[in-house]
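Lecture notes, unit on binding sites. The following record was shown on slide 14. It pairs a sequence with pyridoxal-5'-phosphate.
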Amino acid sequence: MIKYWSYKEEYKKNKNKILNKINKTLSKGNVFFGNQMELFEKNFKKKYKAKFGIAVGSGTDALLISLLALELKKNDEVIVPANTAIPTISAIINAGGRPKLVDVGEDYLISISQIKKAINKNTKVIIPVHLYGQACEMKEILKIAKKNKIKIIEDCAQAQGAKYKKKFVGTFGVSGCFSFYPTKILGTYGDGGFVLTNDFNFFEKIKRIRFYGIETNNKKKKYFNEYYSYENGLNSRLDEIQSSILNLKLKHVNNFLTKRRRLASLYLKELKNLGLKMPKENINCFHVYNTFTVYHKKRNLIINYLKKNNIQTRIIYPYPIHKMKGYEKIDRIRSLSNTEKFSKGIFCLPLYPELKLNEVMKICKFIKNCL
Ligand SMILES: Cc1ncc(COP(=O)(O)O)c(C=O)c1O
């Protein structure tokens, strides 16, 4: 069986290192807010060239905390693509805002012309989602945001290490939100997330919101490190065990990307001219291939053929946001035709650093046979 994704091989290879590290961490006696989390925060923000950063409980929380920090009012609108993960939307609603869905372009990413159409006096935020591992057209988005005094919060959950014009995603807007869900570029064996920012006041605020509004390391504050809340918040901690695993893996993340890109280029070479719509790396982008997403009108035929031959695939995402009951009443611009069309034909082929080149060759062989 070729799995769509699996951590087992990576774990087998690094088992001793990981278990030793967890043992060391637990022996220290800290479960939360210890030196493993602090070290991870320091190295992550340094690696992605941001001034400040906080580790949080998940990518969903990273988005939620960022949006809560903007203190959205009842009618405040947040422009967001309809082709995204559910948590991009739930975070907006849970932060008290109104998602405004717009369509995506041929690259599956938020469309600039659609953003322009969706802006009105209530627009407060744009969330570009760097989907599948590719950065959105940030130059244009920044221009629009500046002109209209709109904040940008980047959803980088699938794009850690991706670049737009040689600059890492995550610091174009007021914040960049990352996920360490196991299938992501840097995955842990549980949940985890991160917020990057270059704005000191925003940083202080998200740090308080992360932990019930408590000041955990601002020595100027009267109630520093006491159980005293300065504002309403939530509980979203990256624990010491997950932090220590992430510290181990962060050192190898460039290597993970090299492997992902190597596998992707083999797919690109082998699956040419078969009528499959292939992922395309935009001119200004460095794509990290969190997924290898293709499109074909006869998706089910291909998926079932691969399944019969013990190859797993996934559909990311099978339903556009507004086509699900939970979100059918959401505001949107009139036509979301690309998102709707793509949702009927996109599917993702196996791709993760431990996948072997000969497994990719095998997958390609079956796809060629099928088509
Ligand atoms: C685009 C996108 N946004 C947000 C999230 C949420 O991240 P998490 O699963 O860590 O909460 C995910 C992950 O599923 C995602 O793919």
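Take-home: The chain has a mean pLDDT of 97.
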